[in-house]
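for the writeup, i need someone to sanity check this before i put it in the appendix. the sequnce is what the collaborator sent (i think, or maybe the updated version? ugh). structure was predicted straight from it, no edits. if anything looks off just tell me and ill rerun, i have time this weekend
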Amino acid sequence: SELRLNDIPSLSELRRRYSRTYARVLKRDRIEDETEYYLLRNVLFDPGEKAEEERAQLEKLIAAYEAKLTR
């Protein structure tokens, strides 16, 4: 693929790399920094299948983090 030709990791590869961070954020139930925020946003907006429960948790965590930034 064009991504591989340009040495750019795919979204799936990035998700694998950050899966431990992703699981840690979900378990903690709180986003602590911008990197975690964008990781969760990318997972949420990835067109792949997600359980409704996972989608709801992602939306809640992202909204809470965005609300924290506007205070």
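The chain has five helices and no strands. The helical segments are 2-5, 11-17, 19-28, 34-45, 52-69.
thx in advance!!
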